[in-house]
Amino acid sequence: MRYDLVIFDNDGVLVDSEPISNRLLAGYLTELGHPTTYEESVRDYMGSAMHRIHELIEERTGQRLPAEFDDTFHARVFAAFEKELRAVAGAAEVLGRLAREEIPYCVASSGSHERIRVGHRTAGLDSWFRDENIFSAEDVGRGKPEPDLFLHAAARMGVAPERCVVVEDSGLGVRAALAAGMDVYGFTAMTPAEKLPGARGYLRRMAELPATLGL
């Protein structure tokens, strides 16, 4: 099937940020008295919007994270991005291929607009995106696994949900895409396929995407 819109998750799909973010998140939560390993951070928070982290901590401990949590965490993440962040291998080539084939694409991320932009600039992907094809959970209020973000992106791009395909690397993202009525391919560079149930298929390398889409 030739889709009318390709929707990319950002962290772990376009930029290799998940190891950095989850290392820092685990460390910060532990520092605040909520002992968390890297593996637990990946399991519980990968693909989440910030509000979900707050909600899970309060649900589990009865305690609220400090008011400055988001700003402090993002400052640490952005500093690490400047030193460590790279694009996912093959991402720039795939974006170039979609552009040459005139297939619309966008990014729909649980991260903030600032985080998306900082990541793209640092990883060298900023030339492929404009404000018009960047969407964040900030835009809709409810992040993944709710379908709101993907439905918002499709509506703004002028494409019916059933004509969209999503590339995701988190279980929350796959659930959100399915709830939005979209096809979804699981990206398994970091997440095993068995943790992405319901995907139409799976990609180990981003370079596999054009053939998967029939280009």
TrEMBL record:
<dbReference type="InterPro" id="IPR023198">
    <property type="entry name" value="PGP-like_dom2"/>
</dbReference>
<dbReference type="GO" id="GO:0016787">
    <property type="term" value="F:hydrolase activity"/>
</dbReference>
<protein>
    <submittedName>
        <fullName>HAD family hydrolase</fullName>
    </submittedName>
</protein>
<dbReference type="InterPro" id="IPR051600">
    <property type="entry name" value="Beta-PGM-like"/>
</dbReference>
<dbReference type="InterPro" id="IPR006439">
    <property type="entry name" value="HAD-SF_hydro_IA"/>
</dbReference>
<dbReference type="InterPro" id="IPR023214">
    <property type="entry name" value="HAD_sf"/>
</dbReference>
<keyword id="KW-0479">Metal-binding</keyword>
<comment type="similarity">
    <text>Belongs to the HAD-like hydrolase superfamily. CbbY/CbbZ/Gph/YieH family.</text>
</comment>
<dbReference type="InterPro" id="IPR036412">
    <property type="entry name" value="HAD-like_sf"/>
</dbReference>
<keyword id="KW-0460">Magnesium</keyword>
<keyword id="KW-0378">Hydrolase</keyword>
<dbReference type="Pfam" id="PF00702">
    <property type="entry name" value="Hydrolase"/>
</dbReference>
